[in-house]
Amino acid sequence: MITQVAGNGRILLTVNENGDWNELFYPYPGQFQQLREARLGLFDVQASRFSWLRRGNGYAIEQRPHGVGHLPQSVWSGHGVRISVRDHVHPNHDLIARVFRVRTDPPRPVRLFAYHAFQIAESMYQDTAYVDAEAQSLVHYKRGYFFEFFSDPVFGRAVCGEHTLKGLQGTYVDAEDGRLEGRAVAHGAADSVMQWDLEPSTGPETEIRLFLAAGRSLPGVHEVRNYVRTGGPARFVQESEKFWESWVARRLPRPPKGLSDHGREVYRASVLLMRHATGTNGSVIASPDTRSLVAAGDTYNYCWWRDGGYVSKAMDEAGLYENSSRFLEFAMQCQNPDGSFFHRHFPDGAIGSTWHPPPFLQIDQTASVVAAAWHHFKRGGDPDVLVSLWPLVKGAANFLASFRDSATGLPAPSFDLWEERMGIHTYSTAAVAHALERAARIATEIGKDPTAWRAASQEIQRAALEHLWDDSLDRFVRSASPRDEKVDASVLLALKLGLLPWNDRRARRVVDAIESRLWVAGGGGLARYEGDEYYGHENPWIVCTLWLAEARLGLGDRARSRELIDWVVTHATPTRLLPEQVDRNSGEPKSATPLTWSHSTFVDVVHKYAIAEAGGLVGEE
Known about the structure:
It is elongated and about 80 Å long. The longest helix is centred in the middle third of the chain and has 20 residues, at 383-402. The chain has 621 residues and is an alpha+beta fold. A hairpin with a 4-residue loop joins strand 1 (2-7) and strand 2 (12-16). The strands form eight sheets. The protein has a nine-stranded antiparallel sheet with strand order 7-8-9-10-18-14-13-12-16. The protein contains 15 helices and 29 strands. The two termini are 34 Å apart. Helix 3 (261-276) crosses helix 15, helix 7 packs parallel to helix 9 and helix 9 runs parallel beside helix 11. The mean pLDDT is 96. The chain has two domains: 2-249, Beta-galactosidase, Chain A, domain 5, CATH 2.70.98; 252-613, Alpha/alpha barrel (Glycosyltransferase).
């Protein structure tokens, strides 16, 4: 499971519970996952004992993000050895620095080993790994992707080999007798091991700086290597730390008063996660987690327009205005000719995989992008932004206004926000009505005629109350055509978008009904919907619980809202990451961890709570 994250908009590095590198994405967050496996090993020369630094091998591990920038940090201790590892992704170079600090008690010689197997361009075929004795470096490459390791001090030995294919385990076995004796070059499913001979003591820690330069050409990574060596390796580590200290001091909003220390840390982690999940091209991935690849045959490493729209809003709230702007520019590049948006896209803008038949629509995704454009303008107040976004808004709004069910006036059937059911859904309807009204406001701001879009929004709003409200149930149904009366937390999101005003008595009845049916007995938290079986039966979801917190805030119950925010904080991981959902019995994270939407929703709701606590009114979306 991912426990820590670092990135610069091109590189996204994740660390797992063993302190090992888990995923290495390049040249976009979420694309490509270049790493197959990494591990660290230690050989005690006097005891003639080798151990991979893993739980259960006589070592305990503590993980706690370092500093205000939450740099990944892991500390192993055992067998009289303490090893701390801190990871840095440089802010402007495609460069990772991994700093090892080793101490032994009693003093004695040890050997440190670092093993890496790549799957360059997400394939483990046709890779090459070689040791460059003259440059004192080690290179992995394939086609247009190059990765060069070098260190300070220089590694004593390094070998290359193969894994997986031909029945081979991996070159890491060469380290397990405490000494490397392999070859200097390998191709195919290539891997490598580096070795450092150390004489640590109980005094000052012995330090090793291992660097990995990533690039699209061999001269490119060599240039970075030489630049680091010429400039002094320590400088590049310091630059990474200082950058994040400055970034947090100048860019990170202060979390609201009253949040616990842990809550403030989760808030900071949430803003940083949104930043790390956003590529320099504006793509926003749902999660860097790749574990679902084994179970489902696919990952969360895509840009969904619904997730991205809500993340964009939260980034604006948290001061990441440039990131939000880049997301909307990325959306313009990916928009379909008819104004709609495809299910999801790869981080480079290519159409992503889907399990939906044509026309591949979740209508609320198109609506989410329009709403994000209006929100972006609200936070910046610059009409020039709306002029540049006008083609996106015009195309999407025209599509939304025309994509209608002729019998009811509601939006035509599409897949719901959970991506499971085809129909006319309450949340999707609210999202479309909301987006069309925001499109009308955008039109008004830049002198265009808003009449048609505003009229369509009002017609859909009236049709929703006529066809989706059920007097006998005293609440909204989940969907019409086909009719589905199951209680669904997404209706809370429909209320957030203005399907009913919070001072309408029906709004309170809807919220009460959802909380009564979907609140998880015992551990707490709000489930998605009746009968949900995704990764367990009716597990509580972070976003759903936060929607309830915002609904309670809208109804004037700040105390209950605060309780729900605190529930989310207590279910963050020890390293401050928020999962998609939580196991209803164990309380452990389930499915994707971290989920960018969970973090963005936390930021959004915390901001609204702060406004309410200060005596202000929570504004409309």
